[in-house]
Amino acid sequence: RRTKTVHLTQLALPGSAKEGHHTVYAQDEDGSEYVLGTLNITTCPNVKLDILLVDQELGLRVEGPSEVHVTGYETLSYEDDGYDEYDSEDDYEYGMYLVSTHVWPCG
Fold first, then answer.
1. Residue 33: phi, psi to the nearest 5?
2. d(CA 1, CA 23)
3. What are phi and psi of 90, to 5 degrees?
4. Is 57 exposed, middle or buried (0-12, 13-18, 19+ CB in 10 A)?
């Protein structure tokens, strides 16, 4: 069984961000919405995160005048369940991958 883990580590405003509050919201698979952080180019240009998503999807949106950058990493792991559908270890995808995206303002 393959397990995908995404670790979100930071929200950051680009150097070109406009003044004002930029609030980033996360929406889980159940539709519940949570505030991940509120950023401001002069007082709080980045927010550290420590959010692990194991085999889950997460929607993101931002309210504010500029985009927000979201960074983190993704890992893939495999668990031996007694059934091997692969012919060799070479068929497995192991590793860590950088996750980077931009969240654009609503409206």
1. -115, 140
2. 36
3. -65, -20
4. exposed
Give 89's DSSP letter: G
What pLDDT score was predicted for residue 49?
A: 93
Cα(62)–Cα(18) distance, integer angstroms? 14
Cα separation of 90 and 21, whole Å?
48
Tokens describing residue 60: 């993101």
| Burial zone of 38 (CB within 10 Å; 0-12 exposed, 13-18 middle, 19+ buried) | middle
Average pLDDT estimate for 22-34: 91
Q: What is the pTM of this model?
A: 0.73
The per-residue pLDDT for 74 is: 87
Say if residue 58's pLDDT is above 70.
Answer: yes
The percent of residues above 70 in pLDDT, for the chain, comes to 74
Amino acid of residue 43: T
